[in-house]
Amino acid sequence: MKAISLLVLFLYGVITPSQAAAASDVVLYDIRIFNEYGYKQPIWAEGGSIPSTVAGQPNVNSAADAKAFGFCRVNNFDFAVTYTTTCGEDESTYMDYTGQGNWVSRDSGSANRCYKLLSTVTCRTKR
User: Which domain does 50 fall in, by range?
Assistant: First the structure.
């Protein structure tokens, strides 16, 4: 199952061939989740809290850590090692992780500022 998941990630351009072969730490670049209408939306890195179902997991010390963890779990990895962020726009919709594989759409509002989004996530499988 893990090999099939890595093949799918490679075919969609989310990981490179060398990452698919190594499969220990994998950097994912297309950091978006499908919303309830079937559109892929970026993941909001800021705000919220750590869901109780994620508390205590490796490398989860903030809400952004929990969102990176959730993204790795959705992509069949065990946990997130690290992540980078980028700025999103105001008056946009982003996805927020609520735990146990659940994601919800969230509007940014209209404040003219940087809305931190996950840009890359490095995921790891247990060996």
Answer: 25-124
Number of folded domains in the chain?
A: 1
The reported pTM is 0.78
Residue with the two structure tokens 């990176």: 68
Asked whether residue 11 is domain-assigned, the answer is no
7 is a domain residue: no
Least trusted range by pLDDT, from 29-33, 65-69, 107-111: 107-111
Mapped onto helix, strand or coil, the DSSP state of residue 52 is: coil
Alpha-carbon radius of gyration of the chain: 14
pLDDT of 94 reads 94
Cβ 60 vs Cβ 82: under 8 Å: no
At a CB cut-off of 8 Å and minimum separation 6, what does 107 contact?
91, 92, 93
Q: Give the whole-angstrom CA distance, residue 7 versus residue 70.
A: 20
